[in-house]
Amino acid sequence: MSSTAITDIAALVTNDPSLGDGSPLGLIHDAALVIEGERVVWTGESSKAPATDNRVDAGGRAVLPGFVDSHSHLLFAGDRTEEFNARMSGRPYSAGGIRTTVAATRAASDAELERTLTRHLAEALRQGTTTFETKSGYGLTVHDEARALRVAAAHTDEVTYLGAHIVAPELADDPAAYVDLVTGEMLDACAPHARWIDVFCERGAFDGDQARAILTAGRARGLHPRIHANQLSHGPGVQLAVELDAASADHCTHLTDDDVDALAHSDTVATLLPGAEFSTRAPWPDARRLLDAGATVALSTDCNPGSSFTSSVPFCVALAVRDMGMTPDEAVWSATAGGARALRRDDVGRLSPGARADLVVLDAPSHVHLSYRPGVPLVAQVWRRGERR
Ligand SMILES: [Zn+2]
């Protein structure tokens, strides 16, 4: 197996506090990193780097772990430009919402779904995302949910069954029947293709009892829970996430003190998705409050065609620093190690020996530039599984 050293790294974010400056980022200055095969085998000061077969000079730039985007909805068809334009122009827009995407997704072929998925994955990779989760939830029939997950599973291990996104339009008058479908025949068809089960626990979607029934049924089939919780209003989602040991409670925009306390005393990560608040002009989630309480925070894109059509983790990092009270260091940690925690992964989101060699070289001397220079395409190189992409 050949070895490669990346040398002359001005600042290396390892996310291993036992390395470098001892901060949560485990920052090493004037650093090098050695890759063998798919793995990182050494990190340290550049002057002490061991001999390797190949050498790549980072030219005094910053290196950090590839972003771990733990929440996206990329199995869709259609377009909601008009809806966004109307919302941002203060005009009423009656047609629209998730149902528009459901209709277009059902009408799309498998090949179309896969083309849309791979186009967005390539776009995310160019912006530094090396691990991503993605969900079903725009099919809402047994056939359409299962095929979306099948398409997704060909491109990532982090596949989430979200049959409980909204009640399927044809069962709008009988939500109990839809919950039976989601926990019955649809679950049977979807479980083989997914690792996770998710539910949109919100007024107008699924209430606490329905969400508990759905997640419990999924767990009995070997799927692990995660929840869209407390996005639009206060509700039972966060408490349910903690009760069921969900890997993540996602959104967390409207939290009581009890919700914050429950997250802080659990292994459930609070995943914040500022692209959604940006794209709907909604109030920001309060990252500072969660961090000060001791909760683990992840940052993710929520990339979807309706409420957050961005695949850019750097954009979310900048928003989190500007508007959610995060420091630049915290935001970078949350977009890398935080995302890994939200997927219960320890092989990604860090750059210390044993980790997967997924990394980003920034066209900047420091990871702080991700929020200092918002909107600038700073990602110069992306390495995934030890290979430059
Ligand atoms: Zn979402």
Largest beta sheet: strand ordering: 5-6-7-8-9-10-11-12
Number of helices: 14
Compute the average pLDDT.
97
Distance between the termini: 19 Å
The class by helix and strand makeup works out as alpha/beta
Helix content: 25-40%
Assembly state of the chains shown: single chain
Overall shape: it is globular
The CATH homologous superfamily of the largest domain corresponds to Metal-dependent hydrolases
Instruction: Kindly report the CATH topology of the largest domain.
Output: TIM Barrel
Count of folded domains: 2
Unreliable stretches (pLDDT < 50, length at least 5) are none
Bound molecules: zinc ion
- What is the annotated CATH architecture of the largest domain? Alpha-Beta Barrel
Biggest sheet features: 8 strands, parallel
Q: At the first level of CATH, what is the class of the largest domain?
A: Alpha Beta
Sketch the topology as an H/E string, one letter per element: EEEEEHHHEHEHHEHEHEHEHHEHHEHEE
How large is the share of residues in beta strands? Answer: 15-25%
Please state the CA-atom Rg, rounded to the nearest Å: 21 Å
- How many beta strands in the DSSP annotation? 15
